[in-house]
UniProtKB/TrEMBL annotation:
It is an enzyme of class 2 (transferase). This is site-specific DNA-methyltransferase (adenine-specific). Pfam families: N6_Mtase. It catalyses: a 2'-deoxyadenosine in DNA + S-adenosyl-L-methionine = an N(6)-methyl-2'-deoxyadenosine in DNA + S-adenosyl-L-homocysteine + H(+). Gene3D superfamilies: Vaccinia Virus protein VP39. PROSITE patterns: N6_MTASE (PS00092). PANTHER family: SLR6095 PROTEIN (PTHR42933), TYPE I RESTRICTION ENZYME ECOKI METHYLASE SUBUNIT (PTHR42933:SF4). Transmembrane segments: none annotated. SUPFAM superfamilies: S-adenosyl-L-methionine-dependent methyltransferases. Its EC number is 2.1.1.72. Keywords: Methyltransferase, Restriction system, S-adenosyl-L-methionine, Transferase. Residues 299-571 form the DNA methylase adenine-specific domain.
Length: 690
């Protein structure tokens, strides 16, 4: 349990403000813990009530608030799960939730660090996708739970689609990072990088025990992560035991790939460098509270970096990281036709520069969701084996990235068997055998020549694109994030033509300028290709679907804050790539998925949308570009903006031109008359006499 300063207890009010409002985004006026609501429960006031409507203190709209109730929670600070106080909160919650005035199908018990959801009908704990809920959920998930239980009051395990699964897992992990951030305020880290590596290293210690348990390699004569908990009341012994556990993993096991991360933790422990023994125990307790890591489905490295890294670290890290909102939706689009498992048609998915494994983790989660038995919510053994050891391949030239991807793959459910170090630009891959490739390759000048006869270049993104085309089997598909130069630079026209002769370009999606800021500020596009047989036409004949993403849920600037704009039915107004849950608890896919390969606004003259300021804009967003219009006259330009939003120059008359020239000449004459002192005075520079 995390210790708090006496003058600053984590009470209900702080919990509402810091977690529910600031972290999970609940509207403050839709939460109450007011004594005037006692009349609805018949006994002590409910600790937390959350409604679809705002509570108006002046109007005292208590009845309206209760009639639109979405969740109710009992809170017990500083009590252990299943302790007497916890059970008292459970009993109060069950009794109050069953009252006719509340009439809510589930209730919540929290000690501010752990949160359980219970079914009002049978009193059993509620799970999401087979995993018992251990954290407070956001408003959308509360709506979903309420809808499912209204339909089936005895339901204890709620299945969701893959979009909601991702939102739940990220929210749960971010809750733990929020708790860690509170402790880190009083710890002296040398820099933010040390804080990040310390966090990941600590989590890796827990991960190792789960790994050996799954492999049936646990040595009962040795101490593991869970055994150290027995020393928690003896800080000196606890710190020594944890340090010994790290030393053993470094010396005796095959866990050496995480040695540098674990070493940061060990050095901090040994020297007690800016950290106390009590703080070490608090950190251990929070990470232990994460529950089972395997299969929980979050991007560990992405979440930690998003939480703790400054813009500088994010810029340095940008080469290895692709934002999760894009890896998720782009992977869903590429794998859209994989609707069910077909044992007669196995396939492989690869990322030849996998970084932290963002694309591969999304591929695993999406296929896992598609292949689960709808009745049991589980995978059949042969399907599970396929996903874990036969389907996912990831390569990277950096050993630390291989380690990151392996850990991330383990956390989403496995599939780390074929994650290895390989310089894919220099080394041969397994022939023309790839069914799917997902990549956000590094950009800029490299040292390896691209495998193409059309141009001579060492640029990473072009060399990787050429490698992908060569590696795909006939009918194989790829989604590659590529900078704008590939799509419009006249000097590589021949390479674009070569791609169109070897593949069918199914789609080009323009990503916002700041899509990956502050990691990178390159203007990028998602290119979707399918390799064709050379017995077909020498050049692509199918029209190309193009789409411009204007809004991805973040401000279109370097700051990239979330806009969170929604309409009356909870649909995103400023986010085209994220699914949502409507006000009735129904799961909906993103706007981009709804429009994929079919939306064309050419006849309507454009699509109406809003920017982050709420201003209405109408512009072309999408349509099919006739392949005959992509030719040598425009250098085989593939930019969506070139066809959907062509630049319209503003022309002026000769008289207006003459006036502009006269104005400029006048300014230049005035500048020529200025002395050095005049210039210094205008610039506010003090004269230096000597």
């Amino acid at each position: 349990m995390v210790k708090r300063k006496k003058q600053e207890p984590l009470n209900v009010s702080r919990f509402i403000k810091e977690l529910l409002v600031d972290e999970l985004g609940f509207p403050f006026k839709q939460i109450v813990n007011d004594i005037s609501f006692e009349k609805y429960t018949g006994i002590k006031r409910p600790d937390i009530l959350i409604s679809e409507v705002e509570y108006d203190l002046e109007l005292q709209n208590n009845d309206e608030f209760i009639q639109n109730l979405i969740a109710y929670a009992e809170a017990k600070h500083d009590c252990a799960v299943d302790s007497r106080d916890w059970k008292d909160a459970y009993n109060q919650g069950l009794l109050k939730a069953q009252k006719e005035a509340l009439d809510i199908p589930f209730f919540i018990v929290t000690n501010f660090l752990v949160t359980h959801f219970y079914n009002t009908q049978n009193g059993e704990r509620i799970s999401l996708n087979g995993i018992p809920i251990a954290d407070f959920q956001n408003m959308d998930v509360l709506r979903l739970i309420r809808k499912k239980l209204d339909e089936n009051p005895d339901l204890n395990n709620i299945q969701t689609n893959v979009d909601t699964q991702q939102a739940i897992s990220e929210a749960s992990f971010n809750n733990k990072l929020w708790e860690l951030a509170g402790i880190y305020r009083d710890i002296n880290f040398k820099n933010i990088t040390e804080k990040i590596d310390f966090t990941i290293g600590f989590i890796a210690l827990k991960f190792y025990e789960e790994k050996v348990e799954m492999e049936n390699k646990k040595n009962k004569t040795k101490d593991y992560w869970s055994d150290i908990q027995s020393y928690i009341q003896k800080p000196d012994t606890f710190t020594t035991a944890l340090g010994g556990y790290i030393q053993r993993l470094q010396n005796e096991t095959d866990f050496g790939e995480f040695k540098s991360l674990m070493n940061i933790v060990r050095e901090k422990l040994n020297a007690l460098d800016g950290i106390t023994q009590e703080q070490i125990i608090e950190i251990y307790t929070i990470i232990e509270g994460m529950g089972r890591l395997h299969g929980c489905g979050f991007d560990l490295f992405g979440s930690v970096y998003e939480k703790f890294a400054s813009n500088k670290e994010k810029g340095d890290f940008g080469e290895f990281f692709t934002r999760r909102n894009y890896t998720h939706v782009l992977t869903k689009l590429l794998l859209k036709d994989e609707k069910y498992f077909n044992a007669q048609r196995p396939f492989i998915i690869g990322d030849f520069a996998c970084g932290t494994g963002g694309f591969l983790t999304e591929a695993f989660k999406i296929l896992q969701s598609k292949y689960k038995n709808p009745m049991t919510g589980k995978l059949e053994p042969r399907v599970e084996e396929f996903l874990k050891s036969q389907c996912i391949y990831g390569y990277d030239v950096k050993e630390e990235n291989v380690s990151r991807t392996k850990l991330n793959m383990f956390l989403v459910g496995d599939g780390h068997t074929h994650i290895i170090r390989k310089d894919t630009l220099r080394e041969e891959l397994t022939g023309n055998s790839w069914d799917y490739v997902l990549m956000n390759p590094p950009y800029g000048n490299g040292s390896t020549k691209a495998e193409t006869s059309s141009i001579t270049t060492n640029r990473y993104e072009l060399a990787f694109l050429a490698k992908i085309v060569k590696s795909l089997k006939i009918g194989g598909k790829a989604c590659v994030i590529v900078p704008d130069g590939f799509f419009e630079n006249p000097s590589i026209m021949a390479f674009r033509k070569e791609i169109m002769s070897l593949c069918t370009i199914n789609a080009v999606i323009s990503l916002p300028k700041h899509a990956f800021a502050p990691y990178t500020k390159e203007k990028t596009y998602a290119l979707f290709i399918e390799k064709r047989s050379q017995e077909e036409s020498p050049l692509q004949t199918e029209d190309i679907w193009m789409y411009i993403i204007d809004n991805d849920g973040y401000a279109n600037s370097d700051k990239r804050f979330e806009t969170n704009l929604k309409d009356a039915d909870n649909k995103w107004l400023h986010n085209e790539i994220k699914g949502y849950i409507d006000n009735h608890g129904n799961e909906k896919v993103s706007i981009l998925e709804e429009r994929w390969l079919k939306y064309d606004d050419s006849s309507s003259g454009g699509t109406e949308f809003i920017n982050e300021k709420g201003e209405t804009i109408t512009k072309r967003k999408s349509g099919f570009v006739m392949v005959s219009n992509i030719n040598e006259e425009n250098y085989y330009n593939l930019l969506p903006e070139f066809y959907l939003r062509p630049y319209e120059p503003k022309y002026i008359t000769l008289k207006e031109l003459d006036r502009e020239i006269e104005t400029i000449e006048g300014i230049l004459k005035d500048i020529s008359k200025l002395t050095v002192d005049d210039i210094k005075n205008k610039l506010g520079v003090e004269n230096d006499e000597g």
